[in-house]
Structures are given as structure tokens and as C-alpha cells.
Design a protein that fits this description.
CATH topology of the largest domain: Rossmann fold
Structural class: alpha/beta
Bound molecules: NADP nicotinamide-adenine-dinucleotide phosphate
Number of domains: 2
CATH superfamily of the largest domain: NAD(P)-binding Rossmann-like Domain
CATH class of the largest domain: Alpha Beta
Shape: elongated
Number of helices: 12
């Protein structure tokens, strides 16, 4: 992203994750600006990341080649419509990470001539370990797709989907997914503590296990089922544990979990 100015509207959890990832991958702080409503968040961003942050979104966006929309879906309409004349005059790429908000809706808020790409990143972008899926309407050309992809790649892995509806599935899988793993690790630590392990020790071991398993899963062409099978030797402890997951229909639970998140993603789009 060297040289191109990127403006992020909304410096909350996701905005900060993207900014941190971009800085880690070599984007200079002076090439980034943030429009952020909360004063406390602005001060923290300036102090901790060294980027300029303002409550005046028009100022944040001025001169930007890419505007990343990282406010909550319910806040997106107000943020975009207030800037619409400026966006039409300046024509930056609008890269929206807002869950559920359709590209046609974003285009209608901006008015004609503003190219829109949607991205669904996740919070590990903070550490450059994000997973992002991108969607661009057919009208968006190769160069702008490349600009969107460079931002996504600066913060981790990036893939494209050709059907916009699939972004709701991505939201349910990798957008919300880190929370599912955190919950599982949290519950494992609590269960271990109830079995007698000191709670801080249980937390450390659970977090380190999540980290190690994540590294193995991310390596090369890791086959998740094979990785699981390699831990679960026949008749062993892991097999006994996995049997309880199966008996309690973990598969069905996970299916319902992802369906609920995808449904909520679609709902958020309609609320925007
Ligand atoms: N969190 C994730 O892991 C994740 C993953 C994938 C995608 N996303 C997407 O990322 C977006 C942001 O989510 P988040 O979790 O980062 O939310 P968040 O922490 O609430 O951040 C949004 C920030 O934007 C500020 N804001 C609101 N209206 C604004 C405006 N008009 N101009 C500038 N700043 C404004 C908010 O300030 P106030 O608090 O004062 O309103 C808040 O600080 C959402 O659309 C979500 O779908 C999030």
C-alpha cells in the first residue's frame, strides 16, 4: 500500500485491527488517517499507533485513495451519506467491512461514480494473521480490486468470493470465528480449573493450546480432519473426549451457530 493514502472511518475494534495490520506490514503512519466519533478512541489511536485521527470525517477522507468503512452496520448509512458529495467529487475506492451491508446499498448512499468493494476481515488482522474475503461488483475494475486486495493481504490471508451472498457465510465462519475458538478455550480452562488445575495455569495452557493448534492448522495445506486424527490415537484420552462431543451433537451445534451468525449478518444489512 506504499504511498496510497488510506482513510479508515471508525477506529473501533476492526478499524484498529486493520490500522495495526497495515502499520505492521510497512504502511507509513502519515499514509493513514482515521475518522472516529469517540474522543477516547481517537486519543488512543494517535498515542498508540501514531496515526492522525479526527472527529471530522470529511477531513479524514480528504485526499484518500481508499476509504475503509469500519463503523457498525447500523452506523454506516449516516457515515456514508454525510460524505456522499465529497466521495462523488473525489471518487476514492470505498472498501466496506460492515457486515451485511450490500454493495448496491452502499452505492446508492454514495451516488454514482464511487467504486465499492466489500471485505469481511477478522480481528487477527491486528497481528497480521487475519482472514479476509472480498467481493466486488462486476463494475469494479482490476486496478481497484488490486487496491482492495493489497489492504486485505497486508493484514493476512485474502480470498475473493464471486457471489455477494457468500459474504454472510464468511462473516459467520471467519468474521465471528475467532470468538468461537476463544469461547471453547475459555470453557476448557474453566473445566480444567474445576478438575483441580489452578485457574491461571489452566488459562495459560488453554491459550497456548489454541495458539499451537492454530499454527498447525495454518501450516501449508493442513488437512483439519487429519490433524485431529493424529492427536486422537485409538482407545486414548482424546478419543474419549471426542466421543462426548459427538454424543452431544457438536456438529449440529456448530451448524446452528454458523446459521445464526449468517442470519444475523443478513439482518444487520437490512437494519442499515
Ligand atoms: N469486530 C470484529 O471482529 C469484526 C469482524 C469483521 C467485520 N467487522 C465489521 O467492522 C465494523 C466495525 O465493527 P467493530 O467491532 O470495530 O465496532 P466498534 O468497535 O463499535 O467500532 C466502530 C467505531 O466507529 C465509531 N463511529 C460510529 N459512527 C461513526 C462515524 N459516523 N464516523 C466515524 N466513526 C464512527 C464508533 O464510535 P462510538 O462507539 O462512539 O459509536 C466506534 O468507535 C462493523 O461493521 C462490523 O460488521 C467487525
Amino acid at each position: 500500500m506504499s504511498g496510497q493514502h488510506v482513510s479508515v472511518l471508525g477506529g473501533g475494534h476492526m478499524g484498529r485491527a486493520l490500522l495495526s495490520g497495515l502499520l505492521r506490514s510497512g504502511t507509513r503512519p502519515e499514509c493513514l488517517s482515521v475518522g472516529e466519533a469517540s474522543e477516547a478512541a481517537r486519543l488512543a489511536l494517535m498515542r498508540e499507533l501514531g496515526v492522525s485521527a479526527t472527529a471530522d470525517n470529511a477531513r479524514a477522507v480528504d485526499g484518500a485513495a481508499v476509504v475503509v468503512l469500519a463503523v457498525k452496520p447500523q452506523q454506516a448509512r449516516a457515515a456514508v451519506t454525510a460524505l456522499a458529495p465529497l466521495l462523488r467529487a473525489q471518487r476514492p475506492l470505498l472498501l466496506s467491512v460492515a457486515a451485511g451491508v450490500r454493495s448496491a446499498t452502499l452505492e446508492s448512499w454514495c451516488g454514482p461514480g464511487v467504486p465499492v468493494v466489500r471485505a469481511m476481515p477478522n480481528r487477527p488482522a491486528l497481528l497480521g494473521a487475519g482472514a479476509t474475503a472480498l467481493y466486488a461488483p462486476p463494475s469494479v475494475g482490476t486496478e481497484l480490486r488490486g487496491a482492495a486486495e493489497r489492504i486485505a493481504r497486508a493484514v493476512g490471508e485474502a480470498v475473493w468470493v464471486s457471489d455477494e451472498d457468500l459474504l454472510d457465510v464468511v462473516t459467520a465462519l471467519s468474521g465471528s470465528g475467532p470468538a468461537y475458538f476463544f469461547l471453547l478455550a475459555e470453557l476448557m480452562a474453566e473445566a480444567a480449573a474445576r478438575l483441580g488445575l489452578p485457574a491461571p495455569l489452566a488459562q495459560r495452557l488453554a491459550a497456548a493450546t489454541l495458539h499451537g493448534a492454530g499454527l498447525m492448522a495454518a501450516a501449508g495445506d493442513a488437512d483439519l480432519a487429519r490433524l485431529r486424527a493424529e492427536v486422537a490415537s485409538p482407545g486414548g484420552t482424546t478419543e474419549a473426549a471426542l466421543g462426548v462431543f459427538a454424543a452431544d451433537d457438536l456438529r449440529g451445534t456448530v451448524e446452528r451457530v454458523l446459521a445464526a451468525a449468517a442470519r444475523r449478518g443478513r439482518e444487520l444489512g437490512t437494519l442499515a
